[in-house]
Design a protein that fits this description.
Elements: H1 2-5, H2 11-29, H3 35-54, H4 64-70, H5 89-92
Length: 99
């Protein structure tokens, strides 16, 4: 909805808004075990940006491959921010005591 209301502000404002929105979403939901969910959210938000950038006029302004070259590098990539699983106990042992 927010991207839809920002159509008149220009493409740069829409991209800046989506950058900050995705950055916050990745920081909050980027925990181990949720990488697929975060990646699908980022992809869906990118598709919505593409949709609303093309609806600003009657003429199509971007095609998907050109959009990928120009806009996608500016958006944050989905990643794991916090590893919630502890280190296994066998990796914390210093070595064998039977020396």
């Amino acid at each position: 909805e927010r991207l839809r209301s920002m159509r008149g502000e220009g493409g740069a404002a829409m991209i800046a808004y989506l950058q900050s929105h995705l950055r916050g979403h990745i920081q909050y939901d980027g925990v181990s075990g949720n990488s697929r969910g975060v990646a699908s959210y980022v992809y869906a938000a990118t598709r919505y940006l593409f949709k609303w950038l093309n609806r600003r006029s009657q003429r199509r302004s971007l095609i998907w491959c050109r959009f990928g070259e120009v806009v996608r590098p500016k958006l944050p990539t989905p990643r794991i921010v916090v590893d919630i699983y502890p280190v296994p106990w066998w990796k914390t042992q210093a070595g064998s005591r039977m020396v």
